[in-house]
User: What shape does this take?
Amino acid sequence: MPRAAFALMVTAVVAGCGDRCENLCTSVGTELGTCKPASLTWNDLGARSRADFVNQCQQQWGRERIDLSASDLRLALQACKDTQRELDTLTCEEVLALYGPTE
Assistant: This one.
């Protein structure tokens, strides 16, 4: 397979499934949805809904990744992978402390 075709295929797969940072946005939204008490609304988290929270996060990542060099992008994607692993070990209280509103 020609190198350009392979690169295009990889890009299409990543775009279709989301990269590690986009997936982290989804995971954080899911964790917040599971962990947030009824007294905490999505508005308190700066969004209209879980889907809006995830969408805002993914859009912010999309804006930030544009300016990254290839090596910085690799580092950012690795950081998102590491953060995902950490997120999987956190309690609800820890998730809310990290991602909830600060007062």
User: Anything to note?
Assistant: The first helix runs from residue 3 to 17. The chain has one domain: 17-99. Residues 1-16 have pLDDT under 50 and may be disordered. The CA atoms of residues 20 and 77 lie 6 Å apart.
